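In this section we walk through a basic example: taking a raw amino acid sequence and producing a predicted 3D structure, encoded as discrete structure tokens. The instruction is simple. Fold the sequence below.
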Amino acid sequence: MKTLIWLRNRWPTALALGATALTFGGGESGEMVTSFAGTLLILPLLYLVVAKLKRREATWPGLLAGIVLVFVLRFLDVIEPAVVYSGLALVVLIWGAVDGHLRASGELRLQALGMLGFGALALAGLILDPDVGRYVVAAGWFLHGVWDFVHLKRDKVVARSFAEWCGVVDVVIAAELVFKL
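The resulting token sequence is shown next.
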């Protein structure tokens, strides 16, 4: 009985492990690095948007919209998702600066710094040799996992269930990249 209660309370972890099982054996190193570098940007962008909106309940719908956008952009094959997500982050940052929220909110500033830091790691992973870039992108995913667990502990910005789910996903993907799983 205790196991069932624990599993019910850890549904984000179970969902994360199930989702990451789909990415095992992700393909060639260069292709894998490019894919994971581009999608790394979804995570800090989601934190940034949710902090700007001050609506934790927007976390899961925002993630769903971000994932759908990745699939649409990859299907259309016109523009890289990383470019779109970088542009969206810039729009949110400008919006926050213009309305004064960026100056007034420590949480939004923290998320802006996170966006810049994780964005820099994703960009570096895209421009470096794939054999080196995968370690940089893996570091980005791992560090974002730490970021998630800190936010889970602080109970700030995003939904707690998302912070748990995302932390597990991030650490597993970092391991995939490092060990080429």
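Looking at the output, two observations stand out. The CA atoms of residues 32 and 150 lie 27 Å apart. The chain has a mean pLDDT of 90. In the next section we compare this with other chains.
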